[in-house]
Design brief:
Layout lengths: L4 H6 L2 E5 L3 E13 L2 H9 L12 H6 L7 H4 L6 E8 L9 E5 L5 E7 L8 H15 L7 E13 L4 E13 L6 E4 L10 H9 L5 H19 L10 E6 L2 E2 L3 E5 L11 E5 L9 E6 L21 H5 L18 E2 L17 E2 L1 H11 L4 H11 L9 E3 L5 E3 L1 H17 L5
Parallel strand pairs: 2-8, 2-12, 3-6
Antiparallel strand pairs: 1-2, 2-10, 3-4, 4-5, 5-7, 6-7, 8-9, 9-13, 11-12, 14-15, 16-17
Helix pairs in contact: 2-6, 5-10, 6-7, 7-9, 10-11
């Protein structure tokens, strides 16, 4: 099948520079194929958390500083006009999307919401999840909410079927990610699993590094439970190299496969026991669209920004667990999708260090920050007026309900103790 079209469109662009290193430029993209032992080392030592510094509610609304097409950067909340280009079925993935071309020739790949009951709720959930993760210091692919005025657009842009006319959609745009994908197989979408990352960290020698990595991993794991990131198959998480590549540390070849959209793309086959990535390796969550719902075996409507389902899932599992020393331990309360695999980390154990670390990061968020997250996600555009009643029988409606449930879940983390 060759490299998936979605993957091709997101690859970092690199070129050979002095000293035998590949750096960001305008030449052929590169994938780093690493041997299993080296990939495990990359995973074990990868950056999981980085201090984002103080962010204001307004900064959360604006989003990270990344390169954006001019049409999106200049929109300032106004609809973006473009002409329908490709139906979503040609673009990869399983969620409704299409591409369109702006008047200045930019091609935009957009996920969209058609307003129907079965519409793509990821358009809203993914904005909320990525802004939250960014504000807390965990790496994810940023997305930006847009309104698109699609000219000559079929009634169903996903399939390309139906009469064509101007149509307006709530949509989201995802910029190209930064970094070079690291795999140990011929599958560029290999990704990583929560259980795999945990085992890689546990393989580190005892000491400060292992303790730090474990703390950050448990905090990320608990955050994934908090937002109910249950659709966590490997392809939803990515291992990347951020920085230069040492081309003398391997064999640079063309990407295997004969598809026209992969022709001439470079792959660095890393030599055994060599670290060709000269920068940081980073673990990132690349697709968090099925969040703020109830998770579970299937990722339907209730798994994607669905207040009743999200509110109904306590952060921690209620059944008692005991650590080896007899002290109570914490288990995150999450059922993962059936396609996620055996090492997806269902109902994961959370250490006290990880719980405490995430609680400290959540303290960054005032009610104004939380409102900014859900306002930016445009939850009012879902056409729903959710309600929620807290333990004191106070009722909250609409945006206030989302903020109240979020705050309640933060309280569950703050008030819990997870043993040693």
């Amino acid at each position: 099948m060759g490299m998936p079209r979605r993957f091709v469109s997101l690859l970092v662009v690199l070129a050979v520079c002095a000293g035998g290193a590949l750096t960001a430029s305008t030449s052929a993209p590169v994938v780093l194929y690493s041997h299993e032992a080296e990939r495990t080392s990359y995973l074990a030592n990868a950056v999981i958390w980085r201090d984002p510094g103080p962010l204001s509610p307004e900064q959360i609304r604006v989003g990270p500083e990344v390169a954006l097409p001019a049409a999106i950067a200049d929109a300032a909340g106004r609809p973006i006009e473009c002409r329908f280009e490709h139906r979503g079925l040609e673009l990869g993935g399983k969620t409704p999307k299409f591409s369109c071309r702006t008047a200045d020739g930019e091609s935009l790949r957009l996920k969209y919401y058609d307003g129907a009951g079965h519409g793509n709720r990821e358009v809203f959930a993914e904005v909320a999840a990525t802004r939250l993760m960014w504000a807390l210091g965990f790496d994810t692919d940023p997305v930006f909410p847009v309104i698109v005025e699609c000219q000559d657009c079929p009634a169903n842009p996903w399939t390309g079927e139906g009469p064509r006319q101007a149509r307006r959609f709530d949509a989201e745009y995802e910029p190209h990610y930064v970094g070079t994908v690291i795999t140990s197989t011929k599958d560029p979408d290999q990704g990583w699993a929560f259980g795999e990352l945990e085992k890689a960290i546990d393989s580190l020698p005892s000491g400060a590094l292992r303790m730090r990595q474990r703390m950050h991993f448990d905090a990320l794991t608990l955050l994934a439970v908090f937002i109910q990131h249950g659709d966590r198959k490997r392809s939803q998480q990515r291992l990347v190299c951020r920085g230069d590549l040492d081309v003398e540390g391997g064999d640079l070849r063309d990407l295997p496969g004969a598809r026209h959209d992969t022709a001439g793309m470079g792959v660095l086959f890393e030599s055994p026991s060599v670290r060709a990535c000269l920068g940081d390796t980073v673990v990132t969550l690349q697709d968090v669209g099925a969040t703020f719902g109830g998770a579970g075996q299937f990722t339907g409507r209730a798994a994607k920004i669905h207040l009743k389902s999200w509110a109904g899932k306590d952060v921690f599992a209620t059944q008692p667990h005991a650590s080896h020393g007899g002290s109570p331990e914490c288990r995150g309360n999450i059922n993962v999708s059936g396609s996620a695999g055996a090492d997806a980390g269902e109902n994961p154990r959370i250490s006290e260090a990880g719980r405490s670390f995430l609680a400290t990061q959540l303290e960054r968020l005032t009610p104004e920050h939380i409102r900014a997250i859900f306002e930016t996600a445009r939850i009012d555009r879902l056409g729903e007026v959710p309600q929620w009643q807290d333990r004191l029988h106070r009722t909250y409606t609409g945006l206030d309900a989302w903020v109240a449930v979020f705050t309640d879940k933060v309280g569950q983390i703050e008030q819990r103790h997870c043993g040693a």
